[in-house]
Amino acid sequence: MLKVISLMKRRDDMTLEEFRHWATVEHPPFGLKLPGIRRYFMSVVTEDSPDLPYHAVSEFWFDDKEAMLAAFATPEGKAAAEDAIAHCSQRTRLLTEETTILT
Q1: Which residue in 45, 72, 74, 81 has its CB near the most CB atoms, within 10 A?
Q2: Of 3.30.70.100, 3.40.710.10, 1.10.287.3510, 2.60.200.20, which CATH number belongs to 2-96?
């Protein structure tokens, strides 16, 4: 299973509340349309600070890298990326494999 983690910093002209609303209400419908998605989480910081490098973390699970690449190549995947680019001043994507240490 492949987990895609995106670290997102809000645009400077958005408040944290505006960004939280975008990340938890407006943006998820884009992610939910990705074909092959297995799980989807969105986490937003609870307090703002000018020192924070990121304000939110999204997590997507796919069966493998091929499924992830296929999903993001679709019109739905491109729309999700465009929406994120429009609302984030910075975005970093990490492709990871999850190892459970404690449950």
Answers
A1: 72
A2: 3.30.70.100
- Amino acid in position 19: F
Angle between helix 75-87 and helix 65-73 axes, rounded to 10 deg: 80
- Separation in Å, CA 85 to CA 33, 61, 91, 103: 17, 20, 8, 34
Q: What is the mean pLDDT of each run of 10 residues along the chain (103 residues)?
A: 96 96 97 96 94 96 96 97 96 94 92
Q: Which residues pair with 62 in a beta bridge?
A: 2
44 Cβ contact list (under 8 Å, min separation 6): 16, 19, 20, 23, 24, 55, 56
Note if the pTM is more than 0.90: yes
